[in-house]
Amino acid sequence: MLKNLKVGVAMTGSFCTIPQVLPVVEDLVKEGCDVYPILSEIVSVTNTRFIQADELIRTLEILTDKKVITSIKEAEPIGPNKLLDILAVIPCTGNTLAKLANGITDSSVTMAVKAHLRNDRPVVLGPSTNDGLGANLKNIGLLMNMKNIYFIPFNKDAPHSKKNSLIANFELLKPVMESALEKKQYQPVLM
Ligand SMILES: Cc1cc2nc3c(=O)[nH]c(=O)nc-3n(C[C@H](O)[C@H](O)[C@H](O)COP(=O)(O)O)c2cc1C
Questions:
Q1: Residue whose CA lies nearest to ligand 1 atom number 20
Q2: Mutate which of 11, 15, 92, 128 to test ligand 1's pocket (most atoms within 8 Å of Cβ)?
Q3: Could you read off the pLDDT of 120-176 as tens digits, one per residue?
Q4: Would you call the peptide bond into 77 cis, given omega within 30 degrees of 0 as the criterion?
Q5: In ligand 1, which atom is closest to the CA atom of 97?
Q6: Residue 1: is its pLDDT beyond 90?
Q7: Which residues neighbour 56 within 8 Å (Cβ) at sequence distance 6 or greater?
C-alpha cells in the first residue's frame, strides 16, 4: 500500500533518537516509497555526541537520492506543488510539537507541515521529548484533536529517571501511515 507513495520524512532535534529513526527511513525506501528528507535548521548544522550533521545529510541524500530540505524557502513548495502524499515528523521534539499546536511556522519542518496540511493530507508525528507529560502535554492534546494529524503510539521513556518523558514507538511508522492515509488514528495510541 505504501509503494510509490511520496513520503516526507522530517527530523527535528531529538538528537539521541535520530540514529534509531534512520533504519525506519531505510525501511520506507526498501518498501518502495519515494522519500523526501527534511531536517530542522538546528539538526542540519549541529554536531552532537549522537550524530554529526554533515554525516546525517550525506546518509539521507544517498539513501533517498534527494537533496535534503533544510530551510523554510525549500519547504514552501511542498504546498503549491502538492509534493507529498504523507509527511512524518520523526522524531518530533517538544519544541516542534508546541509550534505545530499553536500555529507557529518558523522552521523548515513547521513550514513543511503547514504547506502539506494546506493540501488536506495526513501528517504523522512521532514525539520524543522530556516534557511530554509536562509543558507539552496540552500541546499533544491539541494536536490529537487537529484534523489530519496522527500520532505514532508513544509511551513513557525512562519513567523513574525522567518522569515527564515520552517516546514514540518508531517501528510502528508503516501501520500508522497506512491508517493515517485512511484518515484513521492507529490504536492503541498509548502503549
Ligand atoms: C544533545 C541534545 C539532545 C536533545 N534531545 C532532545 C529530545 O530528545 N527531545 C526534545 O524535545 N528536545 C531535545 N533537544 C532540544 C532541541 O534540540 C531544541 O529544543 C531545539 O530547539 C529543537 O528544534 P527543532 O524542533 O526545530 O528541531 C536536545 C538538544 C540537544 C543539544
A1: 13
A2: 15
A3: 999 999 999 999 999 999 999 999 999 999 999 999 999 999 999 999 999 999 999
A4: no
A5: 25
A6: no
A7: 11, 18, 39, 43
In the chain, where the domains are located = 6-181
Is the CB–ligand 1 distance for residue 96 below 6 Å?
Answer: yes
* Ligand 1 site, residue 95, Cβ cutoff 6 A: yes
pLDDT tens-digit readout, 116-133: 999 999 999 999 999 999
| CATH number belonging to the domain at 6-181, selected among 3.40.50.200, 3.40.50.720, 3.40.50.1820, 3.40.50.1950 | 3.40.50.1950
E-strand stretches of 108-162: 123-129, 149-151, 154-156
Residue whose Cα lies nearest atom 3 of ligand 1: it is: 15
The answer on pLDDT for 32 being more than 90 is yes
Nearest atom (ligand 1) to Cα of 131: 11
Closest atom of ligand 1 to 50 CA is 1
Q: Which pairing describes strands 166-168 and 149-151: parallel, antiparallel, or unpaired?
A: unpaired
Phi-psi region of 64 (alpha: psi -120 to 50; beta: other; left: phi over 0): alpha
Which ligand 1 atom minimizes the distance to the CA of 95?
25
**44 Cβ closer than 6 Å to some ligand 1 atom:** no
Which residue in 12, 7, 10 sits closest to 28, CA to CA?
Answer: 7
Q: 55 φ, ψ to 5°? A: -65, -40
